[in-house]
Amino acid sequence: MSFAIPPRVSDRAFARLAEIAEDAGEVKALRVAVNGGGCSGFQYDIGFDQPADDDLVLERDGHKVLVDPVSLPFLENAVIDFSEDLIGARFVIDNPNASSSCGCGISFAM
């Protein structure tokens, strides 16, 4: 699998990373990965991590979002966003490659 259009990060997601860094007193890098599993076949794994040499690094004002090379093709042209709603506040992925997803938005099928 190769990719043509890398994922992008919304203004809201970068703003939330800035808030987290301010609260924590340090800049944190958000890692977005895709793993096999979940109720739909694939699932997003979103957490904080250190950059690896082969990561795609999406950066603004020192705030970084990391995507490993294995996950990258699954996230082609996706938007990494931050959402606050009745379910709660969380980072979310708008992935045009997903043919279906579960109700919580954590797992998807291609």
UniProtKB/TrEMBL annotation:
One of its GO terms (biological process) is iron-sulfur cluster assembly. It holds the Pfam family Fe-S_biosyn. GO terms for molecular function: 2 iron, 2 sulfur cluster binding; 4 iron, 4 sulfur cluster binding; iron ion binding. PROSITE patterns: HESB (PS01152). Residues 9-105 form the Core domain. Signal peptide: none annotated. NCBIfam families: iron-sulfur cluster assembly accessory protein. This is Iron-sulfur cluster insertion protein ErpA.
